[in-house]
């Protein structure tokens, strides 16, 4: 049996479509036929060679849902349900070792020293080869954490849970208090930002403010019930900050969430916060051009600045259940549905900021 795959062979070059033989499934592994795969903003950084984790050649794609075609042995999902052929599943993109200091002692598996990530650090030249979601089939290895999905779930929407959804959930772990009565500002209106905004809203934040450059995302923002959308390009930084101070009795936001993926957002984020506020830096996933920061701006306001790196099984499972409950709002985020053959056009649209979420749904 063969599988169509899209392979990154060289950085800054289009993905190459191929048809390859499906290898034997490793012990404890699953062969899954993709139903939907998400194209992520970080795929662009990967293609440009900016992510130091990425080996070549590689099948990209770290977000997906699919149907179990073959199981080599027994496999249970995170809820303890035994999987069978034909089940629809979603999987955690990262596989952690469970043995290292971070997994075992600190119980922070998202920091695992041996974390393997489908579509990011698994080479196409490494057995069992089909280790990314820009492919007709993916092979999930033994330690992969999966969740069986109900037949009623909208599978295209569910792909969001696997990456940005789970990472947004992780960010909220660092809030010391609940959000009742507070103001949360989200910088960046991509899937990560919108998921974060939705979480803040559903956790009872008084004001959720979204700062975004993309007009496409405003409709979704309205569905989520975001209280204030600030179109970045229409205002100066000073004006944007004033808008946030206007809704917070002149104090600034309790929480700011960076979901832009760019260092350039950070200095503004610090200014948006009230004294003692919390800055969650969630979006920055690749090394960046340096920016000047005066740490006095952090110490003099007694700010908490928290980096947030990827996610683990807890966050992943919460993200899946959140989308199951609220898929109507997240469905609006998907602006393009493409075939695997159209992947390079899809990546181009994303790069030119002409798309919201792009999903591959024809393999
Ligand atoms: Zn991603
Ligand atoms: Zn580990």
TrEMBL record:
Residue ranges occupied by any Alcohol dehydrogenase-like N-terminal domain in the UniProt entry: 28-149
UniProt keyword Oxidoreductase present: yes
Where's the Alcohol dehydrogenase-like C-terminal domain?
Answer: 191-324
What this protein is called in its record is Alcohol dehydrogenase
Listed A to Z, the keywords are:
Oxidoreductase
Query: Pfam families under this entry?
Result: ADH_N, ADH_zinc_N
Matching entries from InterPro entries are given as:
ADH-like_C (IPR013149), ADH-like_N (IPR013154), GroES-like_sf (IPR011032), NAD(P)-bd_dom_sf (IPR036291), Zn_alcohol_dh (IPR050129)
Q: Which domain of life is it from?
A: Bacteria
Q: Does the keyword Magnesium apply?
A: no
According to the UniProt entry, its GO molecular function terms are:
oxidoreductase activity
Organism from which the protein derives: Dictyoglomus thermophilum
């Amino acid at each position: 049996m063969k599988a169509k795959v899209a392979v990154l062979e060289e950085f800054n070059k289009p993905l190459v479509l191929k048809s390859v033989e499906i290898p034997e499934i490793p012990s404890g592994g699953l062969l899954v036929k993709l139903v939907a795969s998400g194209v992520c903003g970080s795929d662009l950084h990967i293609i440009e060679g900016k992510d130091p984790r990425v080996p070549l050649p590689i099948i990209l794609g770290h977000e997906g849902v699919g149907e179990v075609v073959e199981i080599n042995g027994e496999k249970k999902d995170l809820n303890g349900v035994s999987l069978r052929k034909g089940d629809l599943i979603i999987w955690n993109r990262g596989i952690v070792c469970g043995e290292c200091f971070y997994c075992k002692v600190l119980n922070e598996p998202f920091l695992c020293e041996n974390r393997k990530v489908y579509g990011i650090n698994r080479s196409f030249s490494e057995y069992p080869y089909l280790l990314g979601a820009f492919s007709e089939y993916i092979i999930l290895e033994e330690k992969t954490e999966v969740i069986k999905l109900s037949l009623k779930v909208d599978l295209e929407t569910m792909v969001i849970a696997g990456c940005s959804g789970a990472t947004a959930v992780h960010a909220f772990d660092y809030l010391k208090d609940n959000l009742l009565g507070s103001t949360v500002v989200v910088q960046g209106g991509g899937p990560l930002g919108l998921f974060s905004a939705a979480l803040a809203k559903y956790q009872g934040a008084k004001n959720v403010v979204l700062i975004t450059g993309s007009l496409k995302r405003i409709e979704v923002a309205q569905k989520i019930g975001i209280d204030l959308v600030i179109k970045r390009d229409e205002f100066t930084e000073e004006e944007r900050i004033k808008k946030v101070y206007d809704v917070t009795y002149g104090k600034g936001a309790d929480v700011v969430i960076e979901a832009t993926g760019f260092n350039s957002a950070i200095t503004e984020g610090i200014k948006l916060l009230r004294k003692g506020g919390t800055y969650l830096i969630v979006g920055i996933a690749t090394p960046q051009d340096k920016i000047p920061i005066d740490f006095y701006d952090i110490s003099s306001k007694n700010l908490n600045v928290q980096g947030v790196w990827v996610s683990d099984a807890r966050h992943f499972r919460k993200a899946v259940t959140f989308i199951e409950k609220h898929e109507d709002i997240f469905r609006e985020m998907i602006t393009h549905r493409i075939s695997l053959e159209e992947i390079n056009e899809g990546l181009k649209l994303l790069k030119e900021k002409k798309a919201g979420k792009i999903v591959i749904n024809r393999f």
